[in-house]
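Narrative summary of target 7.
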Amino acid sequence: MRRIAIFDTTLRDGEQSPGASMNLSEKLDVARQLARLGVDVIEAGFPISSQGDFDAVRLVAEKVTGPTIAGLCRVVPADIDRAGEALRPAAKRRIHTFIATSDIHLKHKLKKSREEVLEMAVAGVKRARNFTDDVEFSAEDASRTDPDYLCQVVEAVIDAGATTVNIPDTVGYAVPHEFARLIATLRERVPNIDRCVLSVHCHNDLGLAVANSLAAIMAGAGQVECTINGIGERAGNAALEEVVMAINTRADQFQVSTQINTREIYRTSRLVTDVTGIQVQPNKAVVGANAFAHEAGIHQHGVLQERTTYEIMSAQDVGIAESRLVLGKHSGRHAFEKRLHELGYTLSKEDLDRAFARFKELADKKKEIFDADLESIVADEVHSVPQEYSLEYMTVVAGLEGYPTATIKVRRGQSELVDAGLGVGTIDAVYKTIDKLLGIPHELVEYSVKSVTGGTDALAEVTVKVGADGRTYAGRGASLDVVEASAKAYMQALNKLVHYRATSAQR
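Modeled conformation, tokenized:
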């Protein structure tokens, strides 16, 4: 059976989603999880774009083994050299270089002729071969490129040493039958096409990224470029979990395989959500909250009799537990750790101690603790940055008359900062008081709250995003009290901001 390589670009294209920026520690966590997931290639960043991206690619290259580590660069000597330097520590490295080939890009962006672009593409690939034998070339906006010219470019870069040639649907313009025909045309008309792996990189502007990727596989593509949860520029990229599970579920149609450990899919999805703050919609295929939920009585009866009546794949196959977990205040540490392990979490002793303390605190207030509660606790306690500021005390007064008032104490090292403030609502009062205490210039970009589980004792999960210095920082907080969850999320986001500024100043 033909094997399809999975090229994950969550850390590069995925991070280009508005508000999806990750710090170095978070990128390393995601890269390590992608390795456990079993992806073939991790595109760790665009080294020339910033010092932060260079550092991220370098760190992943140093610390993550198994997958090939790739760095993106234009067919520009300085870009290529920078990528080569960042990737140097990797056991398996790939330089991914690109230039646009569509006439619309040549005329309006590059202001170059077809001949000039062809020369630059060839020169770029040859230069990249000085750093590694594994070179990928992308013809940006390939789906809107003249097919004759695209064939010419592809043949030339293969002769120059490209071992993978990527055909991007950069603006999500293609439709499946059209995109499949383009892949088939390249396979038929490019004489040296067998000397490379033909790859595709589809965007979701028309909601067709996964469909186009699967159509390309049927037409002979050997690599799919995708992201976790489908995050990425504009409407996003092809979702890795959907591509992989389509291949697995309809093996009768695709007759191909991947090396993805599908039982790590949900855990990976959850981690990316935690570090980016971008929530997965409930009806999202494979990893959404409703993906394996049944409410209609007929469906429930059918599933109880035979799961396959209404489920085409198993929840366990993607790492989701079908049965709900009921833990309470009498549950011990062993049971807690065992269930976390079943959910896909392996925590250090320190992280486990913090998570268990939060669990016991929550169990004293709630009758039942569900899997979703546990996942929220782990995300809240583990996936965070060092706290420059910690919330020590908070009281809020509100009523039908008067203004809501918040009194807050924050600790910074050995110092305690205390103040009170008013707001138009309780959360507004809390945030204004925190702003007075910390004095960090920023703006609140986004605030959202959701109930993790049902009932009046449901855990509230708040996500906030704050903006400063042209970047966005996401924070999460979980609590039975929505005001407390809001305060924790806000403090986490501001601590991320402070941490990023401090680490940037040290470079």
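The chain has 17 helices and 16 strands.
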